[in-house]
Write a structure and sequence with these properties.
The protein is mostly helical. It has 1 helix and no strands. The radius of gyration is 32 Å and the shape is rod-shaped.
Length: about 70
């Protein structure tokens, strides 16, 4: 037979263990969300850098043909 005090201690230990498990799961969920967010931001950054590099390459390789020399029109 267990005493009332021992029952209270066992109940408290069970509550603490359940709370620790809940916190662990919450931390794991937050870490997964953080990792996914970092991956999305990194992919977006690489996409922007590639677009910028493509625009710069086009500007160097394909000069703007709409600009005509002003001296030739006369």
């Amino acid at each position: 037979m267990t005493s009332h005090v021992e029952d209270q201690i066992a109940a408290r230990l069970a509550r603490v263990a359940a709370e620790n498990e809940r916190k662990l799961l919450e931390r794991e969920e937050l870490a997964a969300a953080r990792k996914a967010g970092l991956a999305r931001r990194h992919a977006a950054k690489l996409r922007r850098q590639a677009e910028h590099a493509n625009e710069a390459a086009r500007a160097l390789l394909l000069p703007d043909t709409n600009d005509s020399p002003k001296g030739d029109a006369e």
